[in-house]
């Protein structure tokens, strides 16, 4: 679905959706600092380093003032052939 949406956003069609784009990254976010801490320790950081990484991330985040503009909704033009059997 992401390939199709990206193709539509670029003005393409379902057929032009680039199959080389890979989407194997899970789009999930940690639910707590504890989960992040556990994951960082799991990468090989010491407990002290993991805690410091979380604190440093908070410091950096407080220094950022980024505002991301919202894109217009993607509209995919539907033709009569889109309703035919695959």
Descriptors for this entry?
86 residues, mainly alpha, 2 domains, 3 helices
CA-atom Rg in angstroms: 21 Å
Structural class: mainly alpha
| Number of DSSP-assigned strands | 0
What sequence of helices (H) and strands (E) makes up the elements?
HHH
Q: Note the gap between the termini.
A: 16 Å
Integer count of domains? 2
Number of helical regions: 3
Unreliably modeled segments: none
Summed over residues and divided by their number, the pLDDT gives a mean of 79
Give the helix level as a range of percent: 40-55%
Global shape: elongated
Largest sheet: none
Q: In percent terms, what proportion of residues is strand?
A: under 5%
Quick gist of this model?
The protein is 41% helix and 0% strand.
Written overview of the protein:
- The chain is mostly helical.
- It folds into two domains: 1-26, no CATH class; 31-66.
- The chain contains three helices and no strands.
- The longest helix has 17 residues, at 47-63.
- The protein starts with a helix and ends in a 23-residue tail after the last helix.
């Amino acid at each position: 679905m992401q390939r199709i949406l990206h193709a539509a956003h670029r003005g393409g069609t379902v057929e032009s959706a680039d199959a080389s784009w890979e989407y194997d990254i899970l789009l999930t976010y940690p639910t707590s600092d504890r989960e992040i801490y556990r994951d960082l320790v799991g990468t090989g950081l010491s407990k002290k380093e993991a805690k410091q990484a979380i604190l440093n991330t908070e410091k950096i985040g407080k220094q950022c003032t980024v505002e991301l503009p919202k894109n217009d909704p993607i509209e995919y033009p539907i033709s009569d052939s889109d309703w035919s059997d695959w």
